[in-house]
Structures
1.
Amino acid sequence: MAMEKPVGNACTRLAEILCFLAAAMEYPQRSWLTPAYWAALEGLLHEIGSISAEAMFPSYPASPEQFEGLQVEYTRLFINAVPHVIAPPYGSVYLDGDGMLYGASAERAKAFYRQENFELRGSHDIPDYLGNELRFVALLLEQGREAAAELFLRQCFRPWFGSFYQRVSRESRHPYYVVLVSLIDFFTEEEEDHGS
Amino acid sequence: MAVKMTRRRFLQSTGCAAAVLPFANLVQADDSFVKYPYVSPGSMAGTQTVTGGICEMCFWRCQVIGKVRDGKLVKLEGNPKSIDNGKSLCARGNAGIKLLYDPDRLKYPLKNIGKRGAPKWKRISWDEALDECATRLKATIDKYGPQGITIFPHGSSAVYPMHFFEHVVGTPNNSEASFFQCRGARDLAYLATLGVPAGEEVDMPNAKVIFLLGSHLGENVHVSHLKRYLKGLENGAKLIVVDPRFSAAAAKADVWVKIKPGTDTAFLLAIMNYLAENEKYNVEYVDDNGDGFDDFCEGIAHASLSWAAKICDVPEAQIKQVADMLSADMPHVAIHPGRHTSWYGNDFQRERAMACLTGMLGAIGSVGGFVRPIGPKLGRFSWPTPMKEHAEEYSLRRLAKVHKFSPPGTPTDLIRNAALTGQPYPIKAMVTWGQNPIQTVPNQAQTIAMLEQMDFVLVCDVMPTDITMYADILLPEVSYLERYDYIKRGTQWDFAEEHQQYIAARMPLVAPETKDHERKDSVWITNELAKRMGYGEHIKAKSAEEMVDIMLAGAKPTLSLKQLRAEDGIHLQEGEDPYDVELDVVFYSEALEEAGYPPVPTYTEVPQPPAGYARLVYGRLPVHTFNRTQNNVWLHQESTLNPVWLNEQSAKKMGLKDGDMVELVNDQGVKSRTATVVKVTPGIRSDTVYMAHGYGSMNPALTVGVGAGVDDQSLISNPSIDPETGTHGMRNNFVRFIKDGKELSIPA
């Protein structure tokens, strides 16, 4: 039982949740975005007690049209769109002056991975991709390296995630993604700054 | 999000449902990260030099190397082994990195579930995308025949799919921008006159005179091309530049002929007539190699210096001066055939005049003349041609009995007109590969109407250019830095140096595979389409690598990618002396006469600007290759707008000053979508305005290039068609300015 787990359980749980959220930010496919997945997200919201997020959380997109709507919105937000892709999920787009991929922010993330004895398996994968950064934090947490995880979040992730979060919150036409980035925000925010 | 608790409290709350929810069970095991042995910070270990790159920021294809650190391409340089561009790269070549890491790049196959022009994209799998493309292209073939498909290709990656659609599927309706909106008239005119296409291989380094007609080298930058030009100037060549604008080349010229646009052929005829009348041409070469010279002389006898002076609006003495300079140093005269030559719809005749002038001077195969380098041999690779006869039968040129000297493919307007009218047959599916017809083909309204009447539009590209907005299925291609591709071959850039040949196949500098995209190369995409369309039996190469290896195997001695890799990307071998090759010169062409065209180069007057309008001409900037580079942040930063050049006297009369922002409107009422800045200068004729091409994209998906500067193509709504070749003439459009909502006439 969860309540019987030793100290560090919170870390493990956060790691699981971050992996879960990183996966939720992948392109929606029926293979993984199941009613059970959806219910888990909803449950998470309920436990956090986010009344407004719970209220906006839509029901599972059961029909093909609803599911396609989610896919179209994902494409528009994160891949390609007219007028333009809304929120590329890469740090250097927000942090480094020219808005390119693989900028200085990516180098900082890569250096951090290495400092912690990790490296991306794909040698050309972009280090400050949202999913990579979340999964890295989860890796650290699984090993109980909470301080390192907090440091990574503070130095590498939070500096760009805020802009990304705002863009998605402001522009998304589907509440699912607003809720998702809110959850990521909640689980990666510095405790001291956490307010209401 | 309004929350009741903190993260810590949440995670530590023993009873929370989250604690018992099986999150881990819902997430597939992820293996994004692996263990990494510690390396001290600051170490340069792991920085690799990767060889075998071929640039494609323009189409000159310089040989490059990449500095790759930890999987990231950090710098591009010229390949020091290159005997072409050498270590040098231009600004665009350097900026290739910014294409590679551009967040606007296409990443996944997309399906448009909205409208063409106002797309709503849904990411789909490659299987789904290819199945749909194949089904819909097959449906077009079944209903309308293979000729119901048209392809608009551009660039080396488009060659493989282009040949598939032409040769295997069997459509003749292939509109290559590099021919029909660029150099087609030039190459066919030289072919009809000298028996070989023109190229740009004039021996400028060793010339005594370099003659440029409209070529603005220095603004138009190709590295080895410029090396030739600059070496020639360094060696003391005299430079003659004919241009209505004080171009970068005009600024270096001994003689700048500020010619009235569209009258170049008259200028050339007068020079040739003067040379003939005064026997100042290369009599020996013409006697030995000329065909129909007497008839030719008779045909141009009307072209006196005074006749041309009046037409061209240049002093008679200056025409004579140019003729005498050419004659004095013949045959060591480099008459540059130009590159982009689709200007006025009388371009074949002008280019034939250039070739005839070259022949009259005997400047063929001579030191400093028109010299054809002898490159290395390679094996051929092509799709089989089971539908060749079908394609010929349905050739729109053949059916209409027009444009009998067309370059390969079908003139764009014949395709567009057939699509719009359904005559002589419908064209209902369009494949665009690496070309952006919105910005390359004149009359955008017609192009969009053509797109709208299609049953299916497939676009494959690297970037979300304007045309991608009109796709039903949009496929993402790997960039030139990530793929194997056709072979670049040639000789040392200075023909007078030790004769050498080189062979360089494009090899990837970085791996195309990463987890955040699914781009593919054109060989893979085309093969998958071919299999699904039922043409799998014709596939000769399973991959781009195999295709390149087949070509390399035909080299003498035999080569392979493996060997090229071992040779740092470039194979060098002994070359051959390209000089002293004589070519026959067809001065009077019976073939042209039989086809109903003028047998002797002929000046045809072009439309003149109405009162209050100036002619719009366009060209290149050294940091841009048309729309290909407009979203590149480094290059954009170098030149964010394309200033419109305006004569200073005109500006004064119009009350405009340098730096004013204006919009443009043409004489057909077409307005520019955006504004740009005025460059007030004495360096342009008052009847002409000029701007660089490749600005003002309408697609907001190009977050850097959208709306920056003015898209000159949007104002070219009235193209002319060259009768012999069917290529577009794009400089017969006339504009005036709009400032603060008020239209301003441009005084002539």
2.
Amino acid sequence: MLTTSLVIGLVLGGTYALAALGLTMQYGVSRIMNLAYGEFVIVAAFATFVLVSTLDLDPLLSLLLVGPAAFIASYVIYAVLMAPLVKRSQKGGSLEIDSILVTFGLLFLIQGILLVIFGADFQSYSYLNVPLNLFGVIIAANQVLAFGLAMFLGVGLFLLIKFTRWGLILRAVAQRPENAPLVAINVDRVAQLAFAFGGMLAAQAGVVISMFQTFTATAGVVFTMKALIVVIMGGVGNFLGALLAGLILGLVEAFVSAYLDPGLTLASTYLIFLVLLLWRPQGLFGKSVS
Amino acid sequence: MKMSIKFSLFAGLVGLLGFAPLVFEDYGLGLMIGIVSYAILAQAWSLFSGPTRYISLATVAFYGVGAYVVAVLNEDLAYPLILLVAVGIGLVMSLAVGIATLRLAGVYFVIFSFGLAELVRQLITWYEVNITGTLGRYIFLPFEAQHIYWMLLVLAAITFGIAWWIKNSRTGMALRVIGEDEVVASHVGINITRTKLLLFAISASIMTLVGAIQAPRWVYIEPSIVFNPTVSFLTVIMALLGGPHRLLGPIFGVIPLFLLFEWLSANFPNHYSILLGAVFILIVFLLPKGVLEFIDRFRLGGAAK
């Protein structure tokens, strides 16, 4: 039971980490608190479901289709919905509050569209549903693949941010948005790209999740919550923190579900969140704010 | 003098509204109940969120708890006592949530309040399934629509009274300073946490009462019914449309939007969510400060931009 929980926790945690990386891009770099974030995850899961069940496409290939599509969609959404708010905030509005309200509207909009098309039922498709023996634990191959993918994408992105020039610019905007223009960084442009990139990561998390989990049109809210908690846990704008916090959350959920009660996983998530807010508001891996 | 005229007008209006059940049929009365309860929710929301600018998405957490208290106790206690218990629980819950989250920056509060209803729903569901063994509960109370309407009307009058009183008191002043700049507020000796906590608790207790009073209309309730996030959503959008820092703002937001959404849900039940989201986005873009502010600026001849 211990090893099973450990493996399941890591699989879950991997997808949370992936999702949280996207959100920390959107919130940490673009300053957009996207409450519709989980909807991007769910839309990607449904898109994969459609691609797999109608075109018989391999979910791995759909990753290559859905990811870039989400990038473009997020890029456009930023231009249409967020850019005017950013502009308004320079004249005394509040970007944080405005973005929360607008994306809250977006949440209902996307959820409504999904409900109209797919209804409220649970959806899933069967993919690589063969048992695999891993360290003496019998686990479905799709979960192992999901974990591998989440880790590959997450760590790959982390390396990209850590070691490329583009990553340096991102970190500059995340940490000192007011100083970034001094070194000729176009903050608006970086913000838009980061938002689009975040949307793409959300979609990739959605594709991965759809490989081993059932999902519904209304499940987005829970993903938003979890991604947010992971982001705060890791320290806003801290990419490595998000990665680690995602894994921790997944493990905690798996253990609570195995040893206490599956109905208490969300409650445990919240408990962690609350304790953390009171104890270290800057996050487990964040630097303390002076 | 002017004060007393305003007060008589207010009392007269409430009295007049009290006759509504004699005029309206069932459907009309149902609409009135909806409008009055959302007016209370929006006013209670504005009470705290208007001046502090903390966006609370937790309305339905308190509303749902109120309804649940009635469902649990309706066979064991006298009704007024049940309402008292409901307010008490709402108060304790809001204090607990407030102490935990109000010290923190705005966005953390938004996030926590966003998921609070979901958390309470899961905890109650877990408790009912594992401890009591049943999920749904029945409410058998001898109330008809007009009784519920009258109770809500009284609560509405009280809520508007509280809102007016706070606006004209030291606490209201303190709240506005906090909303403008917390650093300044602490320098002039305002106890920020205590003031916010007080307002949050009052606001949440009122929301709990609305849920408790409305509960008998459901007859059968279940966590997924009373913790419907749309209630929080509608409350925010109605308060914002009217303008949350104006005393009468909530009314101006509630009436048009309630009727609009009633019409939408009757005519486009499948596309309700989509339209709801679209209306919200439009309001944030077009009327960021609320419709009253917009009218004011228009009347004063300033450019309506």
